[in-house]
Amino acid sequence: MNQIAQCRSWLSRDVERDTSWVRFLSDAAIEDIDSALQHAKSTSKPLLSLTPNDFPLAQAGLEEIQAAYASTQQGWGFCLLKGFPVERYSVDEIKTLYWGIGLHVGVARTQNKNSDIMTSVKDTGGQYKVNGGRGYNTNAGLDFHVDFCDVVSLLCIHPAKSGGTSLITSSLAIYEELKRTRPDLEAALQKPFYFSLQGAGANDEPNIYPCPLYGESQGYPAFRTNRKNITAAQEYFDDVPRLEDDQIEVLDWLDEMLKEPRFCFSMNIEKGDIQLLNNYTVVHSRTDFEDYEEEFRKRHLLRLWMTIPGSQPLPDTWRMAFKDIRAGAVRGGNRGKGITDDFLAYERRQANYHHMHNIFSG
């Protein structure tokens, strides 16, 4: 796979004109997924004990799911896969379905201090810009950021009454724009920025990590930002080096450019859609939203953080953040405080199944 040749920078007008990033599940794939779900339910296994053989996808379902994930590693770097018949199923069945298809593409990462393997993106009254705050349990608009994995996957069960629009920007295009218009700031991107883990680190690791915003490995570019977590590291960790003037300036520049309409594309995620984003070439956000009053109609998405066998190598300067920077390695995630033996067994089993490097669980 040649990431430089295949993964392209884009402007918002490009993805408006060419909608090849939208994929539709075929009827055959939908039936394959339903059949696999029924088989998985018959095993009565919890999610972490399920294997790909427990969720046996036939050819159409397997090929369409794997092709969608593979598309994030080339071309636009993102995909919207439409047509999951979520109205057929209970929320628990949807979770099993969603987890089951993930078994066929890679290894899920834990996402928070509780070491959750799947999170509900739903307003439960959380606060965003506070110490330890996360965006997924609020109705707030979010800073542009990337998640701690190769591919972030969002499955929409219910959209909001209004708002909650997904915003995505090509980090490759932003980097090109910075080199063209602000070459004086290019070096600042490659200085270490300290990020807070917002309390989601493992018990034996610090709750901060250094990581430049941009780097390359073997010709593969990678970009990373989350200003809220950078600010939190500055505010709550006295031993973190203070940001230099050019680092603050480049963060301010990014705040403006990432949302600039020329670069930023707005996408509505509808019921039954799965959005897949490459976290090294696409930065994302969302607008704030208003919910319905009825609990069963409230905005509800399910999120998986996936590491996949077709992933690119990462810069050596990202090693402290991701632990393993080799292409196709199990990496990233917020390890959290709740890692179990069942998760370690799942992680090891999935890594072996997909022939992925795995330094976490042997």
Count of DSSP-assigned helices: 11
Percentage of residues in helical conformation: 25-40%
Gross morphology is globular
Radius of gyration: 20 Å
Query: What structural class is derived from the secondary structure elements?
Result: alpha+beta
Biggest sheet details: 7 strands, mixed
Overall tally of domains: 1
CATH topology: Double-stranded beta-helix
Report low-confidence residues grouped into runs of 5 or more: 1-5
- What is the CATH class designation? Alpha Beta
In angstroms, what separates the terminal alpha carbons? 27 Å
Q: Quick one: how many beta strands? A: 16
Following the backbone from N to C, one meets helices and strands in this order, namely HHEHHEHEEEEEHHEEEEHHEEEEEHH
- Report the mean per-residue pLDDT as an integer: 94
In the CATH hierarchy, the architecture is: 4-Layer Sandwich
